[in-house]
Amino acid sequence: MMNKQIKADLILLMIAITWGSTFVLMKNALSDIPTLKFIALRFSVAFISLVLIFNKTLLKINIRSLVLSLILGILLCGGLTLQVAGLNYTTASKSAFITGLSVILVPVFSAIILKKIPKAASMLGVGLALTGLVMLTSDTTLSFNFGDFLTLLAALCFAFQIILIDKFTNMEDSIILGIFQVGFAALFSVLVLFVYKTSPVAYTGNVIIAILVTAIPATALALVAQTCVQKYTSPTRTALIFAAEPVFGAVFAYLIPNEMGIREILPIQGVLGCILILLGMLISELNIRKMIITFKKAVLEK
After folding, report:
1. What is this structure's pTM?
2. Residues 239/108, Cβ–Cβ less than 8 Å
3. Which of 86, 145, 283, 298 could lock onto 151 through a cystine, CB 3.0 to 4.6 A?
């Protein structure tokens, strides 16, 4: 039977696959819907879905869980708003690459804030994943535009969200935290609409599909699942698994044409980058020390 950590890691991988599918969907939708309205609709639909699914669980709410959810909601709303805003100025694959830099940010800040020093296998996996991220995105050059800057800020938000989920789920009910971080993110995104005037929405097929996919599986279900299972793994492993998001982003960018009907095709170096990221994830799952000891015993017995 699988232990809780392996189960948690598999669920986090499924979340990464789901998130990977959203880059091209969001990119295709942004020509018909303003960024702020898209974010508000995404979080609002997600929160309503969670309330309908977990209505009895809401009775467990208390002041501390609300405060902790508020902090997570700020990071969540800030991260996704900055990421989607950045997509207006950069490519879907480059956005995925920069977002994936949280694989480096998480172990650094986790060591500082939580005093959790990552294991050697995890750090080796992080190094391979970072190398893979660099190779994966063929259009990732030394140029750095405004969209890239916004996406980098988004990566910082996501990194701190992962770290604080690890801390907060030891203090309060994980489902409550998952629900209300989405609720606060919805509240903030709706309030922003009252401050900034936006253009009307054209509810095209691309817009409707993007809202439904990003709201229900990629936000409501994914974030509650992340909050529930992350307690069984480490922040570094979580970030490493989420580094696979741009791998699946590249796959879906090929499977789903953009608004011009063009599919994004990875060059050879991008394929090698995907392999390195997946190899990094695999290495992080292995108990290298135990394997070495077992190998030594096998050699000595011979």
Report:
1. 0.79
2. no
3. 86
